[in-house]
């Protein structure tokens, strides 16, 4: 493994007897102890990357808050580390809200999202006394206000505006362009804010342009857009939430924007932009997900087979699209290494595939590896975001376990999903079709005499 490919792995990654260590623990030992596939998260990297957002926001002139977007990684043990580092939580469902609560977040630390929130989602937000609910559509304001009024409470809200800024990222994760399913166009926001029902208190605006955006300047330019929008419509947002979206490098040589520099630049541009339009500087909220957790994660697999087929050598591992959907969804290119000999000179080019029944189940194309053999452990860096959260049990392979590594110690964060877990939800109706599954629980009927 060259010095440059080490950069993709979490802080403190090293070598012991030529083998990869993460968080001071040998990767092959983790695979032996916890099984594979295995998500590994490095606590020190989580902490450092969280602080890279928290510190500049703490110093923001109008106040600031970094809230972690749980969609990137909802594992409570990971969330607990991020909360310790000073982050709040951005949740997009009642389920994510429950995970945040399990990790110890208070309602006052929660921002609640969702482009189509159900009654259950809204009730969960109210139950938790969430600090902010981000409204995505006018009907939601009516629904939330009715539910808040029934409880005799007021709910602080932001309104999500879609500024029609199209960022350079994969189309599937671009959200700020006109016609997006997220948020409301500027005119609709301007019309909604003055008519918000009494049980809702307008606190400010929310914008999120998209994810895996490596052009930090474009991402930061939303501050100026929001200041102009506020001035044009005589709005005084006390809070400005500019969402998440900062990208990371998945391979050596990819652009790798620095979260701390980005957060500091956004703080400065909010101050400048609101001064220019003569409005008070709002409190700034950022909702990073990927840029906090992606580089803290490594996924370990065991090689099952190596097969040559018409010029391609397929290295098949015991995971795949079930634990990493990102290649199939976004064509992401990863840089795997062999955990036991990451610095050995490659003897050829290999395609790394999974064990699922899809030709698209590929983890990496055309990578150099040193004579990979069945039984070897493969380590894939930058897998801490949108891996565990997007995992599926396709082919009824249970989802992987996850561990946190910290200063030479490893502890289980998520236990492996078993076939029993998967089948536990299934309902087998022993009665013939059409006889009514609902009656299956009823005691057998006593026959009654037929009246003439
Ligand atoms: C509203 C909102 N906030 C924050 C995020 C987190 O984005 P990222 O993981 O790119 O930082 C997302 C992701 O799509 C989002 O939709």
TrEMBL record:
Catalytic residues (UniProt): 357 (proton donor)
Keywords assigned by UniProt, alphabetized: Amino-acid biosynthesis, Decarboxylase, Lyase, Lysine biosynthesis, Pyridoxal phosphate
Cofactor entry: pyridoxal 5'-phosphate
Residues modified as N6-(pyridoxal phosphate)lysine: 71
Domain of life: Bacteria
Gene3D superfamilies, per the entry: Alanine racemase, Lyase, Ornithine Decarboxylase, Chain A, domain 1
Signal peptide annotation: none
PROSITE patterns per UniProt: ODR_DC_2_1 (PS00878), ODR_DC_2_2 (PS00879)
Assembly information from the UniProt record: Homodimer.
Entry function: Specifically catalyzes the decarboxylation of meso-diaminopimelate (meso-DAP) to L-lysine.
Protein name per the record: Diaminopimelate decarboxylase
Gene: lysA
